[in-house]
Amino acid sequence: MKRKIVRIDEELCTGCGLCVTPCAEGAIEIVNGKAKVLREELCDGAGVCLPICPVGALSIEEREAPPFDPEAAERNLEEKRRQGQGIACFRCGTGEDRGVLLFTRYQGHSTWVCTRCLPVLIHG
After folding, report:
1. pLDDT tens digits in sequence order for the chain, 124 residues long
2. Global pTM?
3. What is the 3-state secondary structure (H, E, C) of the chain?
């Protein structure tokens, strides 16, 4: 099927890993020092990762790819949680199983914050 999916330019990619965190589905990982979309069915094509890349190595392209599989994405995230790599609020540690998490940039880092901690970031 033809659909929108993230493309990573390996020549531009520095392997910094900033794009890994905002990919809530877990489609992007660092392999041999470069970011890669390891399983295309995990990429929803939303592009949340794009503005994070400091060198512009990420873009959205429309091409033949397997359809996005939300069940596979959930299984992938569950496996990451079991390995202690689940998404959690950087301030209080609340996981997505206990609260609503939002992707944010804070002090130059890509991270997640829960809605309970967000007002503290906004208002101090």
Report:
1. 999 999 999 999 999 988 988 887 889 999 999 999 999 999 999 888 888 899 999 999 999 999 999 999 889 888 887 887 778 899 999 988 889 988 888 887 778 899 999 999 889 8
2. 0.74
3. CEEEEEEECCCCCCCCCCCCCCCCCCCEEEECCEEEECCHHHCCCCCCCHHHCCCCCEEEEEEECCCCCHHHHHHHHHHHHHCCCCCECCCCCCECCCCCEEEEEECCEEEEEECCCHHHHHHC
Query: Minimal CA–CA distance to 103: which of 39, 50, 63, 60?
Result: 50
Structure tokens at 18: 């900033």
Interatomic CA distance for residues 66 and 59, integer angstroms: 18
